[in-house]
Amino acid sequence: MNVSNYTRMSGKTAAGSVEALRHKIDQSCPCERPDDLNLARHLLFDHVIAPDQASQRAQFEAVSRAIRDKLVRQWYNTEAAYQHQNAKRVYYLSMEFLMGRSLEQNILHLGLENVVNEACNQYGLDWQEILAQEPDPGLGNGGLGRLAACLLDSLATLGYPAMGYGLRYDYGIFKQTFWNGWQCEQPDHWLERPDPWEVPRPEQAVEVHLNCSFELNRGQFRIIPNQPSILRGIPYDRPVVGYGGKTINTLRLWRAAPQNQVDFHRFSQGDFVNALSGSLGAETITRFLYPDDSTPMGRGLRFVQEYFLVACSVADAIRRFRENNNDWTQLPEKAVLQLNDTHPALAVPELLRILLDEAHLDWDTAWDITRRCLAYTNHTLLPEALEKWPQRYLKVMLPRQLELIHEINRRWREEVTARYPDDKARFKRVSLIEPRAPWKVRMAHLAIVGSHCINGVSQIHTDLLKRNVVPDFVEMLPERFVNMTNGITPRRWLLQANPGLASLITEVIGTEWITDLAQLARLKPMAADAGLAEGLRKVKDQAKRRLVDTLKRQHSLILNPDSLFDCHIKRIHEYKRQLLNALHIVNLFDRLRRNPDLDIPARTFIFAGKAAPSYRTAKLIIKFINNLGARIQSEPGVRDKLQVVFVPDYNVSVAEKILAASDVSEQISTAGYEASGTGNMKFMLNGALTIGTYDGATIEMAQSAGEENLFLFGLNAQQVAESRYWYNPRWHYENDQEARVALDLIQSGEFDGDEPGLFHPLLDILLHHGDYYMHLADLKSYMETQQSVGDFYQQPEAWAQRAWLNIAAAGPFSSDRTVQDYARDVWNVCPVEVT
Ligand code: 26Q
After folding, report:
1. Can you tell me the distance from the alpha carbon of 561 to that of 566, in angstroms, rounded to the nearest whole number?
2. CA distance linking residue 237 with residue 235, whole number of Å
3. CA nearest 314: which of 455, 165, 160, 147?
4. Does residue 392 surpass a pLDDT of 80?
5. Residues whose CB is less than 8 angstroms from the CB of residue 322 and which lie 6 or more positions away in sequence, other chains included
6. Which of 290, 292, 378, 674 to mutate to test the pocket of ligand 1 (most atoms within 8 A of CB)?
7. Is 672 near ligand 1, meaning CB less than 6 Å away?
8. Does residue 111's CB lie within 6 angstroms of at least one atom of ligand 1?
9. Buried b / exposed e across 127-162, counting CB within 10 Å, b at 16+?
């Protein structure tokens, strides 16, 4: 095997494999020469401007429209093939989709990078700048939304007839900036300029019936009971291009609009402003994405959003079914709706309502069809995150659906009573409605009873879900519970995010890994190869320098590219323990200040992630990390060895840049609290080594790579649960030097800047309020393990070998594998050949 010369990186050499799959598209829509792209035509006709005068934004739109032209025919063919074969379809219902930018991905998936390159040269376009013009659609909070995007990518790449259903929020997740180290939130008006990818389809609008109306009066969203109204859901379609461009599926996002734009009575009386108030109320429904963990304020609107998604999507799926079928009992053979968490759980009463009231089926038939069409994925065990909606919301807005929920509950509890006649406590536990005022509907119970399949997202999560959260349901319906470990798409997270490493891998094992990630296992026997070690070192080094340049240009952050990049990038939450990482850094600061000659490798700690606007502790943790970074920067003996940066406004595009440059991946959640994680997999695939706890899918990564090839530490989930009763953080303060050093330094005001006592709430959490997430219990073993990480980094060959062993073991964490598991065990669907 020739493993020499890994160093000459030629960008995306993997494109060769797409070439073969392109011939069909080329026949009808040739795209071999730059002129075939018709860039100038788009600039002239869409923007009425000459190429040399167009702004970069206009250039971005023109290139995107030109690329869209190249995919529409196959997009159309895909739908035609599904129609023609009357194929069973997967509908993925999600309140969130974090798709990332589209232009580069679509070019890559269509194999058009050479043509686009030439076109850019011809017109003198700055490619990187054009790519940067595209807003990163932030239609999600984090893992759940990104998982939806990875699954859609795999569904299209594998040729499954699938569609994503979501909401077209005018405003995505807020933009994050820092002011004096504090998180500030800015609105994300991502649709301010026309989006070249979306296709509005007003002719396919659906009606949503509610028993109330909405009004926007002096900025207040109001629900007016007993005034039935009809909303319009207008679909906006976005192409989901499978790798190779054969299958192009659709992400359909709904926008809310009023049925009647104006109140004609008011209008004719000259009250023009108020004549529009109802219409503004309707449009408010898809105005913005709710941030995770937000305050109860305005939650009623979130409920309406959830129903709106469900009503539009179920109606749309059923209309499509009815176009080719007239036997309602065939619905489960033709459609399966996957519920991404309980957010779309109202699909249960909604589908049942249609089958009863519109198809006029009897209860047993309608209920059987409903259950066989629906499946539910759980993403969290945190009790505060399990959705419950006040029954009065349903009473006011959806009385018929509430009636159905009561009947579902009655029948379900009858089944439970039949099996456990005297178990009153169980009867209360399994109810779909909390058995006390204010009578909330338990959405997880509704989703479980209404689905034929319920899954967790990693083995440990599924086990804990079954054992601790819904054991009564598992006893009654054991066969419905399955595990579907999450995955990530290797196209975006390796091929696109890390072209250097992608090319290196392709030079060694060819391009097959792009659509069959298990091929990476072929790298295992070569993991100790000196040429490969050198190759990895070089691509990492280049990626680090690229990140350093970007952060300098965009945020004036100055990083040392020759240091170890230790990355903790994810939403800020106490269970994810950014604070544990910070306590380690405080200790390093202390040690280096005492002894600047300490023999440890220079380290840059890179944080990124947003805190929910109402989550005060999370925001204080951000402020603490920023102050810590600033304090270290001001200490001459320390700053050459240690650096802390917080990269603002974490999103998919930022993740792509950081991952490629990472050496160490922080996956240090309190064991038992991270359902799966998917960032952990992205790091593994990009050749970073993991320091982590026995939690989520990190456990499965360790099983795949060999536990000795990760740096695992700390209490496991069982130990966390068992020690809760007697855990005493004070004991650690009194007995562990690491805890004492860190807490004393924070207490001393070392990091307070000019705001004394600023971080007392963090000390309170750790020392006086019981340290719920057990930072202090794990600090000692975390620090010891971090010491081994640092020592090991001093042996570059051994480090590279271990990184390769991790890459070689990443195959099972492809979302292609996840999708195939769902297709076989949950959806019972097959791929469809598109010609
Ligand atoms: C609920 C009600 C009102 C407003 C917001 C929400 C809300 C929104 C988003 C609740 C939860 C979420 C997101 C949860 C999430 O991202 N969970 C993550 O899912 C990943 C994919 O399965 C897992 O890998 C992560 O472990 C899990 O934390």
Report:
1. 12
2. 6
3. 165
4. yes
5. none
6. 292
7. no
8. no
9. beebbebbbbbbbbbbbbbbbbbbbbbbbbbbbbbb
Angle at 310 between CA 304 and CA 314, to 5 degrees: 150
Catalytic residues: 379, 570-571, 576, 678, 682
Residues near 26 by beta carbon (within 8 Å), at least 6 away in sequence: 32
Could you give the CA distance from residue 674 to residue 5 in angstroms, rounded to a whole number?
Answer: 41
How far apart are alpha carbons 235 and 220 in whole angstroms? 26
One-letter amino acid for residue 684 of the chain = M
**Cα-trace Rg, the chain:** 27
Write down the residue that tokens 């932030």 correspond to: 138
Give the Å distance between the CA of 293 and the centre of ligand 1: 9
Count other Cβ atoms within 10 Å, centred on residue 450: 26
Q: Which residue has the tokens 């240690």?
A: 642
Q: 303 alpha carbon to ligand 1 midpoint, in Å? A: 16
| Distance (Å) from CA 143 to ligand 1 centroid | 6
Q: How far apart are CA 658 and CA 672, in angstroms?
A: 27
pLDDT tens-digit map of 259-316: 876 566 666 776 666 666 666 688 999 999 998 865 555 588 999 999 999 999 999 9
The structure tokens listed for 675 are 């359902």
- Least confident residue range of 276-285, 360-369, 374-383, 416-425: 276-285
Atom 8 of ligand 1 has which residue's CA nearest to it?
292
